[in-house]
Amino acid sequence: MASVIRKIILEKKVAAAVCSASFRFYSSSGVANVDTQKSKLTQREFVLTDKIGAKKNVGLITLNRPKALNALCDGLMKDLSDAIDEFENDDEIATLMITGKGRAFAAGADIKEMQNRTFAEVYGGNFLSHWLRVSQCKKPVLAAVNGYALGGGCELAMMCDIIYASETAKFGQPEIILGTIPGAGGTQRLTRAAGKSKSMEICLTGNQFSAEEAERIGLVSKVLPPDQLIPETLKVAEKIGENSKLIVAMAKEAVNKAYELTLQEGLHFERRVFHSTFATKDRIEGMSAFVEKRPPKFQDE
Ligand code: CAA
Q: What's the pTM?
């Protein structure tokens, strides 16, 4: 418990230092905020980016390597990380959405790229460690899984905060068939979502499973007709975007702690973060708006 309190105090000091350096609370990389009124989104080889929704406050990232079923080659993962950095540092963006172009969300790590790699190369280079960027994003990230989400593709979806899937989506961790095992969270995040027996079955057989099954086992929160996938995911992204970005980041951090801490530590952390909301202008505004029977106007402060 003492270590949790020390961590909270340390995190508050870091947040204060970040604020005093005039960067935004949720700006992760220390890069000065992008002035999106003037700047255009960066063009990239393997991902497309766009600002969508009525307020253009949802950052859409489309994995764009359809001929290879969006296999997650190093270049694509670098582009994805850079796109997340760009949206995270953009004050106009409240939430991020990731989807895939063509018939796949992503069919996994690039097998052709991995085929001749040696143990020394993957261990020495800490292969896959750079995939963490998605799970480190402070803004909510929604996966709109449009087709195959296999191996690293399923793992990428599981790094996101909310997964919506098309009825045609197929999930799986087929690494065992390639003589390897999931390396970007498959054995860990899937087990936390679906439990031991299901996760063992999926990881040890390599069998694919449907979107309906993914929803049944708790991996996916909604299954939609293909033409409704993007509009419905956007709807929830926009709904989240109506709230204070600051408080949303705090809520996301608290939910994620449920994966890391014991129940007592988690409850303690949650209560402390809840207490912290009382130091924000947005908590005062939210409660005042309710009492005054008007919609809240959040300032992300
Ligand atoms: N890596 C590299 N290329 C891939 C790929 C991958 N993971 N998945 C598909 N492709 C390529 C295919 O090689 C093919 O390219 P060519 O036209 O140049 O031959 C193209 O995408 C289309 O694929 P298919 O012809 O195979 O399409 P299909 O409809 O017959 O089958 C599929 C679709 C079932 C998804 C099949 O492509 C497949 O099984 N893909 C591999 C899935 C997989 O094993 N993923 C796990 C990778 S390992 C991993 O991800 C490790 C980790 O934990 C990070």
A: 0.89
